[in-house]
Design goal:
Helix 3 packs across helix 10, helix 7 packs parallel to helix 8 and helix 11 runs parallel beside helix 13. By secondary structure, the protein is α/β, with parallel strands linked by helices. Strand 14 and strand 15 form a beta hairpin. Helix content is 37%, strand content 13%. The chain starts with 6 loop residues before the first helix and ends with a helix. It has 13 helices and 15 strands. Keywords: Hydrolase, Pyridine nucleotide biosynthesis, Pyridoxal phosphate. Its cofactor is pyridoxal 5'-phosphate.
Length: 422
Amino acid sequence: MTDFFTDDYAASADAADPLQRFRAQFHLPRFGDVEQAYFVGNSLGLQPRGARAQVEDVLDKWAMEAVEGHFRGNSQWMTYHGLVGAQLAEIVGAQPEEVVAMNSLTANLHFLMVGFYRPTAERPAILMEAGAFPSDRYALESQVRFHGFDPDTDLIEVQPGADGLFGMDAIAAAIEQHGHRLALVLWPGVQYRTGEAFDLAEITRLGHAAGAIVGFDLAHAAGNLPLQLHDSNADFAVWCHYKYLNSGPGAVAGAFVHARHATTDRPRFAGWWGHDAATRFRMGPDFQPTPGAEGWQLSNPPILGLAPLRASLDLFTEAGMPALRAKSETLTGYLETLIHSQLDDVLDIATPRDVARRGAQLSLRVRGGREQGRALFEYLSDNGVLGDWREPDVIRISPAPLYNTHADVLRFVRTVARWRDA
């Protein structure tokens, strides 16, 4: 029987990894004389080494060309946001005209809800998951109130089961129960605390069958799971780029609007940059939206903010989402195997065991309770192994396939074992 809990096994697995070369394309934080074991790509991805050159290219262009930089060269600023469109579309499984990089995630959620959350007295409700990331709940509650409805009755939060997970049965039951009142279903691609992943196409089918619009927050899914947004038939989606897509703190976010809404007459908050590019500089008084997701833009994009995204997307394009997903399943499976074989008396895994229901993240609870969990989390950090903590009692460990290794995973497990045995 193979002994997975050895340096030799981890080294041989990493040597056989076809994506191993990508680790050298990132700046890895140091812990003393060694690299940190960094498992927080689900919160802030590491800096691609190519990011600095992309930013400096913009700075140089600004220095040498000033305002003319908007119109000169292949990386001119007028069309700069379009340089990332095709690559983003490939990552999220969309048509190029269905995606745009703009704003921040919660801003995009609000702006798209202007058009896609149109409550009536008969259908005022939004369906979401209980325990959602606070920003989503704040946004949805404020939208319900803005339209004059009551979040106590019109913001419907689906409760997880006793295991903390949702599953399609609970989602389907909630849509069936409340479907006649639903204006919108807004669901995550991956639940941030537990790491549970969801079937976007099935949720969309159920929501549409009930007469609701369906949108997704893909903050923890974009760049993590192979997505098929166009084929899912979702109406809209939003996500950030600073997690798995490694584009830096506060990076420009992303949005998807399905092609069937490309020329919609739904209301929207309009801005100059969303106006049809062919006539934008005529400076006319009447808003004519660009067809597709770009028509939801308001202001010209922050070029310096988009530059690091280009560096990251080049790596994703080279690696390919199928290969990244395969390695992600391998690394997360290795972590799961070692936890069960070495740390079953210490850690409980809150994330589904079914690989189809999870991404790169395993959410862990220490069996001794929250106080012990915090003690372990701090011990890990003090020993160069960085995960993150989510209240009330979860340590999230996320092996990112572009830069994490089997050796990183083994180091995490050994560090936990030392803490237990101390």
